[in-house]
Design brief:
The complex is a heterodimer of chains A (254) and B (566).
Chain A lengths: L1 E10 L2 E11 L4 E5 L6 H9 L6 E6 L2 E2 L4 H7 E4 L11 H11 L4 H14 L15 H14 L4 E5 L7 H16 L3 E5 L3 H7 L2 E6 L2 E6 L1 H8 L5 H9 L3 H8 L6
Parallel strand pairs in A: 3-8, 3-9, 6-7, 7-8
Antiparallel strand pairs in A: 1-2, 1-4, 4-5, 9-10
Helix pairs in contact in A: 3-4, 3-5, 4-5, 8-9
Chain B lengths: L5 H23 L1 H31 L8 H31 L2 H7 L5 H34 L6 H32 L4 H27 L7 H11 L1 H5 L1 H14 L3 H40 L9 H10 L5 H15 L2 H25 L5 H27 L10 H6 L4 H30 L4 H28 L8 H5 L2 H30 L9 H31 L3
Classes of the chains: A alpha/beta (254), B mainly alpha (566).
Chain lengths: 254, 566
């Protein structure tokens, strides 16, 4: 469903994504992990067609994003790490706008909007202007908009930031359901528990290179470590280096 | 896509956003809306009256009939100036709107075609950059219609908005084309190229203006033959810029009742405007997303900002301030110079000022009579003051709002909140004082104005620098808009409009009271009556008003800032 073929991306002379090849099947939840600045958000922007690869090809449902971007974007939904909502629209108007944008038939759009309001418990505030929403309310509205038109591919960047435990549980359940329905999910996150619980496969990226890819067991095997995903991730990305940095830092007494 | 085309969908979105914004504003404060309408009406009315008086004077006192081709040439000059301003303002607004706004990123990740997103953004940018053109242009042209011949026929007033709407498509599309070309062809050097173009353009305009004045100066300054000669000299350029002429010729034809010619020029304006618009949208279909990619990928992943010497220079210039205030000012200075949309407009401001003074220089070199010296000196004083008013309104007023949602960081700093305002006030007043005193002193020396007038002018500039700075900083704190990230939009909001109107009134009052009496004495040739008590009473009254204008808003702003929750 998603195919990255030898994708490289440069910013000026700085390499952000290095020869990335990846295939994600329909109905798979792929978690994309990596330290800060590893190239996760760049990869996601490439997947949405917001950036073009310096070399290589990206296809979504067989459509080349550079030449048939509109067709590909008709099938996908993108939830960025800092989601955008029109502040002078109500949540309901945002949902209606999305329904119209994706060409949903009026009766179906009404039904789906009702479903989304129920599922994400938006009822209390859906008719308020979104400028009054808290972060959690915004995030729930954004997810409702992303799932409203029943996308085939869902691309999510840091979905759990700012959500309360109940909303995180709701989100996890929902992503699980969408995957069962056949939706392909590309999830970039620092929440390793979410990745550990939901992901079919996990990719670990560091300095733009995919350094590990596979199931959790495959990653454990590669890291030669039978621990949690956190331990495996740290081993793979050598962020154990952090411990050394912390031990060198000596704060002055208060 | 569905039966609802993307274009219609985006127009519906625009309508919903407008309707909801209007409801919010009306719901929050009806007096606020009424004040904005009243202020706009006041400006419109004032401009109409001045234009009408001007046309009346031209016709009756100077015996210049308004139906001659000379007026079309005057319109050409006006529309040429407006065209240049519209090209730059649309280009700058559209650049920010297309390539840096979160809304664009959102829309580009949806299936809406790129050219529709571009058209939606383009329409917003053109409407935003040309509202002032409509507000300022319409009273002048309506006044012209009333004074030309026996009065223009009714359809002159009907086609006026049609000419305006068609005309703004031309500079708007050119500005959009420039923005697209810049990001696609020179993504790494776009700022430098833009600065070079602005400097070249302004230099060219200045040279052209000077040349025209040199030729015109063969005749007695201010005479009918001088005006004829001047207009004749400048006609060469608009002739080569035919589209700028179409609107002037069309409006003149409408005013004179020549309906066929009017229709011809109206069709010419609209057909060319639409053609250029279509061409721009077609280009955007190919180059918008590509440009966005090039802007994002053109430079280094993490840009390194240097310019430490500029900060050190600012530290030295602001030697009279305490360390914390200096720190805040340097932070503002850094933010300002790293935002091209900000400093580019300053550059245009400065360019226009240079243009004005380059042209004025011709008068200094001529042996002109005392009445003209007197008039030009007052004109320079007023022009500098109005520029200062525009500068504080556009750049100083939005400064506090631009701290945005991260304002709490400043709120938590170990310093009094009043100090934030004092820092911004000191920054604004320093810049205004330095520039305005230099310009006015230079002009007065060249014009050989008497020393006492120079002192009065210097006092006027000091009072206005402090007054306008206090007004903008204070009202900026009274009416902060932390949601908006575009300073030009903050400046045209309610607080910004109030600040502009208050600033204009302050300028008129202070100049009228402080410098008016001494210019009256010069004009009336009663210099012997100089130590007149009412001259100094005017200076004192103007200074009092200036101090009040600085202190009262600053106090109100500080009170509001202290009460502010984050």
């Amino acid at each position: 469903m998603i195919e990255l073929d030898r994708v490289t991306k440069y910013y000026g002379n700085k390499l952000a994504v290095d020869d990335l090849s990846l295939t994600i099947e329909r109905g798979e939840l792929f978690a994309f992990l990596g330290p800060n600045g590893a190239g996760k958000t760049t990869t996601i922007k490439l997947l949405c067609g917001l950036l073009f690869p310096t070399s290589g090809v990206i296809r979504v449902a067989g459509f080349d994003l550079q030449t048939e971007g509109e067709k590909a974007r008709q099938l996908l939904s993108y939830v960025p790490d800092q989601p955008f909502l029109y502040e002078k629209l109500t949540g309901r108007e945002v949902l209606q706008f999305i329904a119209d944008m994706y060409g949903m038939e009026a009766t179906k759009a009404r039904r789906r909007i009702g479903d989304m309001i129920d599922i994400f418990e938006l009822d209390d505030f859906v008719d308020d202007l979104t400028e009054r929403y808290s972060h959690g309310m915004r995030q729930r509205t954004v997810f409702a908009s992303a799932l409203l038109h029943e996308p085939e591919v869902l691309i999510v960047d840091e979905p759990t930031v700012g959500l309360d435990p109940r909303s995180i549980r709701l989100l996890k359940d929902l992503l699980g359901q969408e995957v069962k329905r056949g939706v392909t999910v590309f999830l970039s996150t620092h929440s390793l528990d979410v990745a550990e619980e939901l992901a079919d496969r996990i990719g670990v990226v560091a300095s733009g290179r995919l350094i590990a890819c596979g199931t959790l067991d495959a990653l454990r095997h590669q890291a030669a470590l039978d621990g949690s995903l956190e331990e495996v991730f740290l081993k793979l990305t050598e962020e154990g280096e952090n411990k050394r940095v912390v031990s060198r830092y000596q704060a002055p007494p208060i | 896509m569905n039966a609802l085309s993307p274009g219609l969908l985006l127009q519906r979105l625009r309508f919903a956003l407008f309707r909801n914004s209007l409801r919010v504003v009306m719901g929050q404060s009806l007096p606020r809306v009424l004040t904005i309408i009243l202020c706009s009406g006041l400006i419109w009315g004032l401009l109409f009256y001045v234009s009408w008086m001007g046309f009346h004077e031209l016709r009756t006192r100077w015996d210049i009939p308004l139906d001659i081709s000379l007026m079309a040439k005057v319109f050409d000059l006006m529309f040429l100036a407006l065209t240049i301003m519209l090209i730059f303002s649309t280009g700058i607004i559209l650049y920010a709107s297309l390539f840096t706004s979160p809304e664009s990123q959102f829309l580009l990740s949806t299936p809406i075609p790129d050219d529709h997103i571009f058209a939606y953004k383009y329409q917003g940018a053109v409407a935003f950059s040309s509202w002032a053109f409509i507000l300022l242009g319409s009273p002048i042209l309506i006044a012209y219609g009333l004074e030309v011949g026996d009065g223009a026929p009714w359809y002159f007033y009907v086609v006026l908005p049609l000419f305006f709407l068609g005309f703004v498509l031309l500079p708007g599309s050119l500005g959009a084309l420039c923005a697209l070309l810049l990001v696609n062809l020179v993504p790494k050097r776009r700022k430098q190229v833009l600065v070079a173009v602005v400097v070249l353009l302004l230099t060219g305009l200045a040279l052209w203006g000077v040349r025209a004045l040199v030729e015109a100066s063969q005749n007695q300054f201010g005479s009918r033959s001088w005006i004829d000669s001047f207009i004749e000299e400048v006609r060469a350029v608009p002739d080569r810029l035919a589209p700028v002429q179409w609107i002037g010729l069309g409006l003149r034809a409408a005013a004179l009742g020549e309906a066929a010619d009017m229709g011809y020029y109206l069709a010419l304006v609209w057909s060319n405007g639409l053609l250029l618009y279509l061409g721009t949208v077609w280009m955007a279909r190919k180059w918008y997303r590509r440009g966005l990619n090039r802007v994002a990928s053109g430079g280094a992943l993490r840009k390194r900002y240097g310019g430490l010497w500029l900060d050190r220079l600012a530290q030295r210039v602001l030697f009279f301030l305490d360390a914390k205030t200096k720190l805040l000012i340097i932070k503002d200075f850094r933010t300002f110079r790293r935002d091209p949309a900000q400093w580019l407009q300053i550059l245009i401001f400065l360019g226009l000022a240079v243009l004005y003074f380059a042209n004025m220089r011709r008068f200094y070199e001529q042996d002109i009579g005392r009445p003209f010296q007197n008039g030009i000196s007052l004109l320079t004083l007023a022009a500098t003051s109005f520029l200062m008013c525009a500068y504080t309104g556009r750049f100083i007023f939005p400064m506090l709002s631009l701290e945005g949602r991260k304002f709490w960081i400043l709120g938590l700093l170990p310093l009094e909140r009043d100090q934030l305002l004092r820092g911004k006030f000191a920054f604004s007043a320093s810049v205004c004082l330095l520039l305005s005193l230099f310009v006015v002193f230079f002009s007065d020396v060249m014009l050989q104005m008497p020393g006492r007038v120079m002192i009065v002018h210097a006092l006027t500039m000091i009072v206005l620098s402090l007054g306008l700075s206090g007004l903008s900083v204070g009202l900026g704190a009274c009416f902060p808009n932390f949601r908006e990230t575009d300073p030009s939009k903050i400046a045209v909001g309610f607080g910004g409009t109030l600040n502009l109107v208050a600033g204009l009134l302050l300028v008129i009052l202070v100049i009228g009271l402080m410098s008016g009496p001494s210019h009256y004495l010069l004009a009336a040739d009663r210099e012997t009556a100089w130590p007149a008590w009412w001259v100094w009473a005017g200076v004192a009254a103007g200074a009092g008003i200036g101090v009040l204008a600085a202190v009262a808003p600053l106090k109100a702003g500080a009170r509001n800032l202290r009460r502010m929750e984050f």
